[in-house]
Amino acid sequence: MNKSVFFGALLVLLAGGGYYQLVHLPAQEAAHLEAERAAAEAKAAAEARVKAEADAAEAARLKAEADAAEAKATQEAAAAAEAAARETAEKAREAAGAAADAAADAAEKAADAAAEAMGAVKDSLAPSAGAAAEAAATAADQAAEAAGNAAAAAGEAALDAANFTAERALELIEASSLDAATKAQLKLAVETTRSNPALIEPVLERLRTALGR
């Protein structure tokens, strides 16, 4: 009986040891390996994050330096261009001043010479020049009067329904002393007669009133 108990206990111990060796220890080893793997992955991820942050910071620093260098170069170029422009403008003012002085001197000398020449001509031609000037003035007055009469006659013809054309009416409006707004309104009214001849007489009446005819 005691041997049976002994051997039974021994079998239980051996079975427990076998279970520990075959099941429990591999499970612990697997858990340990899994923990080491997770730790390694976490460490690698942390190192990658730190490296990415460092790379981003370095890239930002380099970009800031490049932007600063570009801004400085732009400012220097603008300052150089402004200085060159000022120098060019100053030289141009100096050259223009010299040219203006020379031109003024030449003009003054030419005016003096012309005045002297005209004085001499007037002295030699004074009697005949007076008569010629009077005749020219009379002819000019007569020509101006004839031109005025012709213009008045043309204006009256343009305002006659029998002789009306839109082109002549538009020319008459444009040549008048009316303000721009009134001219625009009258021109618009004249344009309507092209498509509706029945409006010619009312439009002519409006033109006569505006022009005081």
Q: Which residue ranges are poorly predicted, with pLDDT under 50 across at least 5 consecutive positions?
A: 146-150
Oligomer: single chain
- Portion in beta strands: under 5%
Query: How many H/I helices?
Result: 4
**Element order: H for helix, E for strand:** HHHH
Shape: elongated
Radius of gyration: 56 Å
Helix amount = over 70%
Please give the alpha-carbon distance between the first and last residues.
157 Å
Structural class: mainly alpha
Count the strands?
0
User: Largest sheet at a glance?
Assistant: none
User: Please, what is the average pLDDT?
Assistant: 75
Protein name: Translation initiation factor 3
Keywords: Coiled coil
Organism: Falsigemmobacter faecalis
Coiled coil: 35-91
Structure description:
This is Translation initiation factor 3. Residues 35-91 form a coiled coil. Keywords: Coiled coil. The structure is a single chain. The chain is an all-alpha fold. The protein has a domain at 143-211. The chain is built from four helices and no strands. The relative contact order is 0.03.
